[in-house]
C-alpha cells in the first residue's frame, strides 16, 4: 500500500505526434550531407571558390524547395489515405455495429483480455459512436484520428532545417577563406553536432549518434570528391 505522503513519481513522454521532428532531422542531415558532398565534388574537380559558393547556394535553394514540397506532399497524401480509411470504418460501424463490436472484442481476446470483459467493453463503446470510431481506427489502423501530423509543419521544418544544414559548409567561404578542406572540416563538425543533438530525442549516446552521422557523411563526401577528381582530370 502506498503511503499518502509519498510523492507520486511522474514521467512525461516527448511529443512524437506533431510531425516536425522527423522532417526537421531529415532536412538538416540531408542539407549537410548534400551540400558537403556537392562542394567536395565540384571542389575536387578543380572549381574556383566563387564557383563552389555558387554551386553550394544553388544546391541549398533547390534542395530546400524540393524537401519542403516533398514533405508536404508525403504527409498530405498520408493524411488523405488515413481519412479515407476512417470514412470506410465509420460506414462499417453504421452498417454493422454488432459485427464491428465482435471484431473488436476478438482482437482484445487475442491480446489476452478475458472474453466476457472484452465483449462488455466493446458493447459499451457502441453507445458512443465517436469514441467507438477512435478505438476501432486505433486498433485496426494503428493511428489516432485526433493526432494526424500537419503537412505544413513538416514542409516548413524540412525547408528551414535543410537550408540551415546546407549553409554550414559554405560558412568558411562566406567568411573569406578559400580552402576546400577547411569547408569540409566545418561541414564534418556540423554533421557530428547534428547527430549528437538528435541523441537528445532518442536517448542514444551523443558521441555514437554524432559519430555515425559523421561517418555516413564522410562516405558520401569521399565518393563525390573522387568523382569530381576523375571528371576534372578527364576534362582537362
Mean pLDDT: 89
- Which stretches of 5+ consecutive residues score pLDDT under 50? 11-17
Q: How far from one another are the termini?
A: 82 Å
Main beta sheet: strand number and arrangement? none
By secondary-structure content and strand pairing, the structural class works out as mainly alpha
Entry summary:
The protein is an all-alpha fold. Helices cover 78% and strands 0% of the residues. The protein is built from 9 helices and no strands.
Helix/strand layout:
Blueprint lengths: L20 H24 L4 H47 L1 H14 L4 H11 L3 H13 L9 H17 L3 H4 L5 H23 L3 H30 L1
Helix pairs in contact: 1-2, 1-6, 1-8, 1-9, 2-3, 2-5, 2-6, 3-4, 8-9
Main location: membrane
Protein name: VIT1/CCC1 transporter family protein
Keywords: Membrane, Transmembrane, Transmembrane helix
Give your account of this protein's structure.
The protein is mainly alpha-helical and about 240 residues long. It has 9 helices and no strands. The longest helix is centred in the N-terminal third of the chain and has 47 residues, at about 50-95.
Amino acid at each position: 500500500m502506498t503511503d499518502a505522503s509519498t510523492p507520486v513519481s511522474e514521467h512525461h513522454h516527448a511529443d512524437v505526434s506533431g510531425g516536425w521532428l522527423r522532417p526537421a532531422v531529415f532536412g538538416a542531415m540531408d542539407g549537410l550531407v548534400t551540400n558537403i558532398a556537392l562542394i567536395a565534388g565540384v571542389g575536387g574537380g578543380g572549381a574556383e571558390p566563387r564557383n563552389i559558393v555558387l554551386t553550394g547556394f544553388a544546391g541549398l535553394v533547390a534542395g530546400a524547395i524540393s524537401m519542403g514540397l516533398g514533405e508536404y506532399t508525403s504527409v498530405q497524401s498520408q493524411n488523405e489515405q488515413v481519412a479515407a480509411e476512417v470514412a470506410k470504418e465509420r460506414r462499417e460501424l453504421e452498417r454493422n455495429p454488432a459485427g464491428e463490436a465482435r471484431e473488436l472484442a476478438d482482437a482484445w481476446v487475442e491480446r489476452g483480455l478475458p472474453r466476457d470483459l472484452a465483449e462488455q467493453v466493446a458493447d459499451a463503446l457502441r453507445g458512443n459512436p465517436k469514441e467507438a470510431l477512435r478505438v476501432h481506427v486505433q486498433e485496426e489502423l494503428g493511428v489516432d484520428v485526433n493526432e494526424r501530423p500537419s503537412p505544413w509543419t513538416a514542409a516548413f521544418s524540412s525547408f528551414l532545417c535543410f537550408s540551415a544544414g546546407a549553409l554550414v559548409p559554405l560558412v568558411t567561404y562566406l567568411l573569406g577563406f578559400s580552402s576546400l578542406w577547411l569547408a569540409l572540416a566545418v561541414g564534418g563538425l556540423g554533421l557530428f553536432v547534428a547527430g549528437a543533438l538528435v541523441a537528445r530525442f532518442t536517448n542514444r549516446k551523443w558521441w555514437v549518434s554524432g559519430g555515425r552521422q559523421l561517418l555516413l557523411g564522410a562516405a558520401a563526401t569521399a565518393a563525390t570528391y573522387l568523382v569530381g577528381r576523375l571528371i576534372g582530370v578527364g576534362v582537362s
